[in-house]
Amino acid sequence: MRAFLLEDDPLRVAWFESRFPDIVVARTVAAALYSFEGLKPDFVFLDHDLDLTESGNGYYAPRQGDGTAFVNSVLCQELRYPGLRRAQRIVIHSMNPVGSYNMWQALDAVGIASERIPFSNLKERVA
Questions:
Q1: What's the CA gap between 76 and 37, in Å, rounded?
Q2: How confident is the model at residue 79 (pLDDT cuts 50, 70, 90)?
Q3: What is the mean pLDDT of residues 69-96?
Q4: How much is the pTM?
Q5: Fold of 3-125
Q6: Any idea of the CA torsion for 20, 24, 27, 28, to the nearest 10 degrees?
Q7: Rounded mean pLDDT of 104-116?
Q8: How is the chain split into domains, by residue range?
Q9: Spatial distance between the Cα atoms of 5 and 65, rounded to a whole number of angstroms
Q10: Hey, how many other C-beta atoms are within 10 angstroms of the C-beta on 92?
Q11: CA–CA distances in Å: residue 71 to residues 11, 58, 101, 124
């Protein structure tokens, strides 16, 4: 089974790699768009919060885009990125409830089914 992962946390990446030895890993939105072009994975795992930096007032913001930016970019260029529509299973594993909802909503709006499963619950739900 071919799998794709958008994730920047090394411990999470290791967890996915132990279950999907041939997984394609991208740690930034730019790397994800490059890696995902023409890819037709069976499973897609997406995080929302990538490469966070403190914004100065106690909040953290992504430096180079987030999972929603990836999803929106792919949906705007579906001929270039057919993988989302063809995947058997798309899992949004972000612990950020608002970010994961925004990603889910963008996919749902164009008829692409996905699941929101926080990373902490994946062990029980992903083989």
A1: 13
A2: confident
A3: 90
A4: 0.88
A5: Rossmann fold (3.40.50)
A6: -140
A7: 95
A8: 3-125
A9: 16
A10: 26
A11: 23, 27, 12, 25
